[in-house]
# Entry
Amino acid sequence: MKKLLPLFCILGAAAQPAFAANNLNNLQALAQADFRALSEDLGSALSYKPLTPAEPLGVTGFDMGIEVTSTKMTKSEQAWKTATGGSGISNIYVPKLHIAKGLPLDIDVAAFYSVIPTTNIKLVGAELRYAVLPGGVATPAVAIRGSYTKLSGVDQLAFNTKGMDVSISKGFAMFTPYAGIGQVWVSSTANTGNLAGESFTQGKVFAGLNMNLGVTNIVLEGDKTGGTESYGVKLGFRF
# Structure
């Protein structure tokens, strides 16, 4: 874990320019339609990204690493510019420190923490996953997952997401491709008095590849939530 922390800081520093001078502190300047567009893109960017195959870790298993996801602001680039009083952005980069632990009965729990350096933007998330089929030499693993994320540090915005998905994976030597489909529920409330809260659902599909290189584990994942694309990479240890 100590080796991962410096790398997490490097990823945070690399992602930070996307948020520099872009704090969400001018939401009252948005029209309702713009706030909805911003909320939809934030739902896509800040909802839970698993970056893990469906197979369970087992009672002694751990999966820990640092990751970063990039999400296109396809619906709200101009709204972001207005809400921050800064410049528009085309992508949001979110670095995370992620850890998962295997439990009995093919259940896994996981959580992540994200903070963007030099800003007050923070994000936490957690998941509970159950492998309906744990998988084997000739059979794939199938899992169902419930997840939750919550944004903090932004006085003008109360924001969280809840998610449910089903995923499948099958290992081949050191490679384990996986894919899944699910639903995300977004709750977004501007604490400014002139905007109505937004609550809505977004469809979700994702696919990725877990590569276990012995000491190091690498995951690549593509995600499409609410029609908006995200791409993520995780570097860490899985055993």
Notes: Strands lie at 62-72, 91-103, 107-115, 122-133, 141-152, 157-169, 175-190, 198-212, 217-225, 228-238. Residues 1-10, 12-21 have pLDDT under 50 and may be disordered. Residues 32-46 form the longest helix (15 residues).
